[in-house]
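Progress report, Aim 2. The chain analyzed during this reporting quarter is listed below.
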Amino acid sequence: MSHSVDIAAAACPEHRSPDLNPERALDLLVMAATLLFTNGQTTERTTDCVERLAKALGFSARVFLRWDELTVAIENGGGTASTTVEARPVGIEMGKVAAATELIDDFCDHVSAPELLRSSLAKVQARPPVSLIRFASFAAIGAAALGIIFGAAHVASLLIIAVSAGLGACLRRWIAGLSHNPFAQPLAAALLAGAIGALVVDIQFSSLQRLVAVCPCMVLVPGPHILNGTIDLARGRLALGICRVIYASLIIFAICIGLLAGLSFGGTNLPAAAPSPPVPLLYDVIAAGAAVAAYGTFFSMPWRMLPVPILIGMFAHGVRWALLAKAGVSLAGGALIACLIVGVITTPVAERLRLPYAGLAFASVVSLIPGVFLFRMADGLVELVASGGNVSSSLLQATLADGANAFLITLAITLGLILPKMLIGVRLNRRFTGSSGRA
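Predicted C-alpha cells for the chain:
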C-alpha cells in the first residue's frame, strides 16, 4: 500500500466526526472501494458509492480503478491525500456487494460513527463463501438443468452430468485452498468433465455424450466479467475493460483446453454437428429456473434474493422458446430479445436490491450461453490443425458455423444486457441514490 498525504486537518465540515482525520477517512474509503471492486460491482457504481461515502465524511474524493490496483484521492481544506492498494476484480460475491452497499447507503443517509461502518465492512469482507455442500449441489443441479435445455432427456445421462459437475465443484474448492491462480480451477474442472465424457463415449452409454462433457463446463463460463468488461468499454474505460474481457477470455480458453484434453484421454472429440432435440416449454422454463438458481449460488446471492433472478430468467427463457418455436426467430435473435427483456427488468431491480448488475443479469440468462457451439468450435479447430493438408470441407463448414453461432449469440446476449443498463441506468441511479448520474 502506498500513501501520499498533504492535507490540512482544520476546517472540518459539519458532516464529519470531530475525531476523524484524513488518513483514517482515506483508509475507510479504500476499504469500501476494495470490497466493492474485488467482488463484482461495476466500475461506475463502485466509484459512485465511494464518492458519496467521502461526501458524508466531509471530503471530496476521486476513485481510479485499474485491473491490478485502485487509487482513492480525497481533498479538503486545500490539501490532498491519496492511497493506492493492490486489488483485482476477479471475484463475484453478490451477497458481499449488497451488504456493503446497504451499509454505505445507510451511513450516507444517517451519518454515524465511521468506526462502526469500518467494523461492519470488515465483517462483510470476512464472510466465508457458500458452503461446499451448497456449492457442489447447485453445480450439479445447474449442469443437469442445462442438459435438459439442450436435449438430454434420459435420467441416467442427467445423473452423470450432475455427478460430473458436483465433483468438479469439489475439485475447484480443493484447488482454491492450494492455489490462488484464477485459471487452475476452471482448467481442472473442465479436465475432469472431459475425462468423464470420454469414459461415457468409450462405454457407449449415451447418444448425447457431448452434453455429458459440455454441460459441466458451461457452468464455468465467466459471464459477469464479460459484461463488466463490455460496460467499461462502452463507457470509454478502455484499459480496464480490455483487461476484464481478456481475463474472461483466458478463463474460457482454460475451459476449452481442459475439456479437449479430458476428451483426448479417451481418444474422442465432440461431434461436429449435433442438433438438439426440441424440449417442451414447461421443462425448458423449469430447467432455466434451476440453472439461474445455480448461478445465483455460485455468485453468493442471499437466499432471500434468489427468487428474483429465477423468475426473471424463467420468463425470459419462455419468451425465447416462443420466439424460436413459434415465430421462427434465429438463435441469436431470440437471445437478443430475451436479454433486452432481462436488461430492462434487471436494471431497476439491481439498483433496488443493491446487487451488482453483471452478476444478477448474467445469472438470469445463463441458460442462453452458447457453450455447446463454443466448445464444438474449439474441438473443430484442433481437428483442422491435426488434419494438416487433408482438410475436410464438412468439418471446416461445421467449425465455421459453430464459431459464427457462438459469436453472434454472445454478442446478442452482451448487447441485450448492456443497452438497457446504458440507456436507463442514469435516471435510475439518480432516483435511487441521488448521485451524480453515472450508471
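The longest strand covers residues 69-76. The mean pLDDT is 84. These observations will guide the mutagenesis work planned for the next reporting period.
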